[in-house]
Fold this protein.
Amino acid sequence: QVQLVESGGGLVQAGGSLRLSCAASRSTFSINAANWFRQAPGKQREFVASITRSGRTNYADSVKGRFTISRDNAKNTVYLQMNTLKPEDTAVYYCNADAISGGYTTNYWGRGTQVTVSS
C-alpha cells in the first residue's frame, strides 16, 4: 500500500505564500489524477484544485488567480503554490490522488498538513 505524504504547511502572514507538496511514499506507485482539498475548523472538507496526469487543471472559485496546482511526473509529486494567502485560507490541506500500480488504480488520501494564515 502507498501513502501520500504532504509537506510544506506552516504559519504565514496574510499576503504571504506557501508551497505544499504531495508525494507517494513508494516509487512503484504512479500518481495519476490528483486533487487538493481543505478543511477548516467546524467546516466540511472542500475542493481546492485538481490536476490530471496530462496537466489539465481546475480550481475552486475561492482560490482562482491565487493558487496554482502543478506536478512533476518524474518526481511523482504534486504541488500547490499558494500566493496572496488570506486568513480564510486557514485549514488542514489534504492531498487526494489516484495511484496506479501493477495496472490497478486506487484512490488515496494523505494525512493533511496545517496551513495557518494570520491577519
Summary: The chain has a mean pLDDT of 95. The two ends are 40 Å apart (CA to CA). The first strand starts at residue 4 and ends at 7. The CA atoms of residues 81 and 106 lie 25 Å apart.
